[in-house]
Hints:
By secondary structure, the protein is an all-alpha fold.
Amino acid sequence: xxxxxxxxxxxxxxxxxxxxxxxxxxxxxxxxxxxxxxxxxxxxxxxxxxxxxxxxxxxxxxxxxxxxxxxxxxxxxxxxxxxxxxxxxxxxxxxxxxxxxxxxxxxxxxxxxxxxxxxxxxxxxxxxxxxxxxxxxxxxxxxxxxxxxxxxxxxxxxxxxxxxxxxx
Length: 168
C-alpha cells in the first residue's frame, strides 16, 4: 500500500476520533470550539483526484455529523471548503500551485497562514450559518466564526508544527 494513502487513512480516522472524543467537549464561553478535523482538508495531497477529494470531504463531515447528530451541517461545510480549496491554493500560493510544484512545508509562513485562515473561515462560516439558519442571527454567526476560527487556526498551526517532517 502506498505510504501516502496509508497516512491519509490514519489522518482521516485519527482526526474524526480526536474531534468526537475530545474536541467536541470543549465549549468555552459558548463560542469557542476547535474543529481540528479541517486539517484533513488542508493537508490532503494537492495533485490528487479532485472528485475523490470531494467524496472524502463529504464522508469526513458526514462522520462528524453522525457522531454529533447535527443533521449534515459538517458534511455541507466540508464539501464547500473542499470545493473552493483549489481557488484558495491558487490565491495563497500562486504559480507554484498552478505548476503542481507545491509542497506545503516549503512555502512561506505568510502564504501558509493565509491558506489555513481562509479555509477555516469559509468552513466555519458555512457551518455556523447552517447551524443557525437565520439572517437575524448574523452577529452570533460571525462571533462563533471568529472565535472558533481563531482557536481552530491556533490548533492547526500547532499541529502542523508538531507533526511536520521539517521539525523532526
